[in-house]
Amino acid sequence: xxxxxxxxxxxxxxxxxxxxxxxxxxxxxxxxxxxxxxxxxxxxxxxxxxxxxxxxxxxxxxxxxxxxxxxxxxxxxxxxxxxxxxxxxxxxxxxxxxxxxxxxxxxxxxxxxxxxxxxxxxxxxxxxxxxxxxxxxxxxxxxxxxxxxxxxxxxxxxxxxxxxxxxxxxxxxxxxxxxxxxxxxxxxxxxxxxxxxxxxxxxxxxxxxxxx
Length: 212
Hints:
The chain has 212 residues and is α/β, with parallel strands linked by helices.
C-alpha cells in the first residue's frame, strides 16, 4: 500500500505521515528533506541558491540514509529549500530516487508537495492536508521554540505565505491536490484528532481493497 500526504508548510503532513508509517510499519520518506539537504549543501559550499547546475549535482549525490532531520529542520533552511525546489533540474534529479522509494515491496508513506500528483500518482491512499496560514505559522513557531530558535511570529507567517505562493506558482510540480486526494483541513484539529482523521481515510481505502 502506498500512502501519499501532501500539503503546504506546517500543515501537519510530516507528523501525520510519520505516525501513519509507524502504525502500518511502512517505510517513510519526507521528500521535503531532500530539498533542504540540497539547499544546505549549496549554503555550506557558499554557492548561490539559484545555481541550477550545482543544485542538480548536489541532488544527484544525495543518499537517503544520510539525511539528518535534526540538522535540516531549522528555520533558515525553509525558505532556501523552497527556492531550490523550484529549479527544474533539481526536481528531475530527485524524481527517480523518490519514485524508487515509493515502489518498495509492501508499500511506503511519502509526504511533500507533489507525492500524490507526480511521485506516486498510483498511490492507493492520497491525503491533502491544509490549515490556515495563521495556524500553520503558530505551529511552526512552536517547533522552532522547542529547538531553541527564536523567530518572530510575523516573520514566520510572512515566510509561510511566500512559500505557499512559490510552491503553488512554480511551473513544474506545483503544490496542488491530486484529483483523487481526500482533503483534510487540520485548522481546528489537534494532532490526535488529525491522526484519527487521516487513519480513517487510509482505513477506508484498505477496506475497499479487502484490507490487503
